[in-house]
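By convention, the token line describes the chain's fold. To illustrate:
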Amino acid sequence: MTRYFYLYIHFMKLQWKRYIQYREDAVIGIIGYSVNTVISIYVLKVFLDNLSNFPGWSTNELVLLFGFVTMARAGWNFIFINTLFIGDYVREGTFDVLLLRPVNTLLLIIFSKIDFESIGEFCIGLIIFWMALLTEFETLSAWFILKIILLLIGSILCYAAIHLFVNSLTFFIKDVYSINFIVWRLDETTRYPNSIYPSWLSILLWFIPYAFIGYFPLMSITKSLPLLADLGTISAGYIIFLLVYKIIWKFSISRYHSYRQ
């Protein structure tokens, strides 16, 4: 594990050097992501201004949810964005090269692209979440902060599991672009409570399972849940990612044959 951590840091440094070769483009990219997040904040404001009654959710809790999910999605973008392009590796035949290297294949894919443009989005989400958190609670203990960090990592891994599952299908149907697009748009729904959506969509979001990205973590943060429920919420993202990796990903690459054959 330590070896992979240092390897990731090494790849990050290389990616950063390549990224800042075109500084104007880098700045524009970061600003673009940040502007997109600001627009989403404005949409949230309009949503809250026109909301007279929302059972079970206070205005501050909705802001907490928005900030938390924004951080989780930005974290996924930063680390796991390249899993969206697994199909390109397969179609171009470069997946064969990855299989021959003495490093975990999925990690090589992850290491190959780091999305620095999502840093601005993460920072804006952090500011929103932190301000709402200070409004919600008078004091914040070290354990509480640690729990939030663990929940955030779990949410990032849940995003990663969903997209890894979808892109593992590329070993069977080759082109998953349309499915990727649908799931990418569904990601946006996690910034708001499930109950605002039609019943069929709400059920779908529980099944995928988007509820473990925003809804359940926010319940763990703002409500006094039983210990087992708290532990289950914290560990859910880790377990879901592990299951997708061990079962879906491993099985998928075992069925791989070169697309060039």
Summary: The chain has a mean pLDDT of 84.
